[in-house]
Design brief:
There is one protein chain. The protein is an alpha+beta fold and 272 residues long. The chain contains seven helices and ten strands. The strands form two sheets. An eight-stranded mixed β-sheet has the order 5-1-2-7-10-9-8-6. Strands 3-4 form a two-stranded antiparallel ribbon. Helix 4 (192-204) runs parallel beside helix 6.
């Protein structure tokens, strides 16, 4: 299997220390099911096209221009060259602005990961020293990288024999949790139920193993497509979720019994 192509090459710089590095994409869409839009009448693929809203005529690409709606129905035309002048020129240095504790990183801001590796043998020693020093301190580096002519805030942390660089969402992209959680009530509940729930959790504790993760929707798509190829009926749909629990104590105890867990005497007495 051919090595993945680097999407960026440059230098990682911490103070006076620098080394050549390469960025390689850490995700792939190759395994996803992709659809084309067909004409139902003849089964042939159709093409998308931009049409004039008033006349319905197709507008050729050379006559298309970006527009910003300043007022309703009033557009400012933006020429391609005007946008091009605003784009950052390709920069080739990951200048570390500072280090943050890995445990302090708010995972909501993590967006897209890339692998960061030494560019060549000459860079290996400096790269390794920086990675091991960061690992010992349990810190990630804060920096900015220019990808596809756009500056992106990133964090870089040790990962195996290399490092992991992850694009960050901006603060303006995030919705404050207070906008969602503030209207939630803090209900009263039986504290003894926490012991029962804790026993159930202890039974289910496992390791974080992404190799066992399943994309149930993607799997269902593949099964449906396979059935259609073979002229069979599609698989049955998954049953709808059950309604909210009414008697939580009873449901928790049934779950313990199903897992073969014997509750303590105090837990047994709960709501009996």
């Amino acid at each position: 299997m051919a090595a993945p192509r680097a999407v960026w090459k440059g230098f990682l710089k911490v103070g006076s220390v620098s080394c050549g590095v390469k960025l390689v994409g850490a995700t792939s869409e190759a395994g996803k099911v992709h659809f084309k839009i067909l004409n139902r009448e003849d089964g042939l693929p159709v093409k998308s096209a931009y049409v004039d809203e008033e006349t319905g005529d197709v507008v050729p690409s050379e006559d298309q221009i970006k527009g910003y709606e300043a007022d309703k129905g009033e557009f400012l035309e933006i020429e391609p060259d005007e946008i091009k002048k605003l784009k950052l020129q390709s920069q080739h240095t990951l200048e570390v602005e500072g280090f943050v504790a890995i445990d302090d990183i708010d995972t909501r801001y993590l967006e897209k990961p890339y692998y960061l590796i030494p560019a060549d043998g000459a860079a290996l020693e400096a790269f390794t020293v920086l990675r091991e020093a960061m690992a010992a301190k349990r810190v990630a580096a804060r920096s900015c990288v220019v990808l596809y002519q756009r500056g992106r805030e990133v964090v870089i942390q040790p990962y195996g024999k290399g490092m992991l660089l992850t694009e960050l969402r901006t603060h303006n992209e995030m919705i404050s949790e207070s906008n969602v959680f503030d209207d939630l009530n803090d209900p009263k509940y039986d504290k003894d139920l926490l012991e029962i729930a804790g026993l159930l959790i202890d039974k289910k504790v496992t390791k974080f193993d992404p190799s066992k993760f399943e994309d149930t929707y993607e799997d269902a798509l593949i099964a449906m497509i396979d059935a259609k190829r073979k002229g069979k009926k599609p698989p049955k749909a998954a049953p709808p979720p059950k309604e909210n629990v009414v008697n939580l104590a009873s449901i928790l105890k049934k779950s313990l019994a199903k897992e073969g867990i014997k509750p303590t005497s105090k837990a047994k007495a709960t709501r009996n």
